[in-house]
Specification:
GO molecular function: transmembrane signaling receptor activity
Structural class: alpha+beta
Subcellular location: Membrane
Oligomer: single chain
Largest sheet: 5 strands, antiparallel
Protein name: Ig-like domain-containing protein
Strand content: 25-35%
Number of helices: 2
InterPro entries: CD300_family_receptors, Ig-like_dom, Ig-like_dom_sf, Ig-like_fold, Ig_sub, Ig_V-set
Shape: rod-shaped
Organism: Lynx pardinus
Helix content: 25-40%
Order of helices and strands: HEEEEEEEEEEH
CATH class of one domain: Mainly Beta
CATH superfamily of one domain: Immunoglobulins
Strand order of the largest sheet: 1-3-8-7-6
């Protein structure tokens, strides 16, 4: 592809025209897809050279990888980009084949003329092939591109699904993490309460044994050999009880 548009060759900043050239603001597709768009221009631009280029530059917009239209309305192909000017219908058709992730970015559909070029900016979105739905039809072959409808419309049907599902999955992940954290906190609190209850029960038993021994007296031996009562002897099973 040739590099540099008339605007970039003159070192001018790229400034959109005032409606002399119109088209879609955004197109999209998956890796390996073929997408097309149509630029419409005014009657006074019929005989001017048209071009398609990728925007480059940080502070000043310039063109790179520029492709120009052929003569007499013939289709012009350079690499994976094809242009076809139709002066009768005042339209310029741009076709991009075998999309890659590096193709994503801003592009210009323009008309070269003296002074300032007429053009508009187009955003190209390229999604990884792994996100392609299983029901997505196979990409059309080069021979069928002219007869098949634009893949842009087919891609737009599935792309909103990806954009909608992404935040839903993030929300579900956050809810799951919060649920696991709450469950862990509950189990830890339950374990502490169980340990506290066990410790309390043990302390109560010790305290009860002290009370019983204190009430019986220091020399009392109700179950010893000196027991003379005819009633049965009841010996509390306590530490130190024979």
């Amino acid at each position: 592809m040739r590099t540099g548009s008339p605007a970039s060759q003159r070192g001018l900043q790229v400034v959109p025209g005032c409606g002399a050239l119109v088209g879609p603001k955004e197109i999209s597709g998956f890796e390996g897809d073929t997408v097309s768009l149509q630029c419409t221009y005014r009657e006074e631009l019929r005989k001017h050279k048209k071009y398609w280029c990728k925007e480059s530059g940080f502070f000043i917009s310039r063109c790179s990888s520029t492709v120009y239209t052929g003569d007499d309305g013939q289709e012009r192909t350079e690499g994976r980009v094809s242009l076809q000017d139709n002066p009768q219908e005042l339209t310029l058709k741009v076709t991009l084949r075998n999309l890659t992730l590096r193709d994503a970015g801003k592009y210009f559909c323009g008309v070269s003329k003296l002074g300032r070029d007429e053009f508009f900016r187009v955003s190209l979105l390229v999604f990884p092939g792994t996100l392609r739905p299983s029901t997505q039809p196979e990409p059309a072959s080069t021979e069928d591109t002219r007869l098949a409808p634009s893949r842009t419309s087919l891609s737009r049907v599935s792309i909103p699904m990806v954009r909608i599902l992404a935040p839903v999955l993030v929300l579900l992940s956050l809810l799951l993490a919060a649920g696991l954290a709450a469950l862990g906190s509950y189990l830890l609190r339950w374990r502490k309460e169980a340990q506290l209850a066990t410790e309390t029960q043990r302390n109560e038993k010790v305290h009860l044994s002290h009370l019983v021994r204190k009430a019986a007296g220091p020399n009392s031996d109700p179950c010893g050999a000196g027991h003379q009562d005819s009633r049965p002897c009841l010996c509390v099973s306590l530490p130190g009880c024979p």
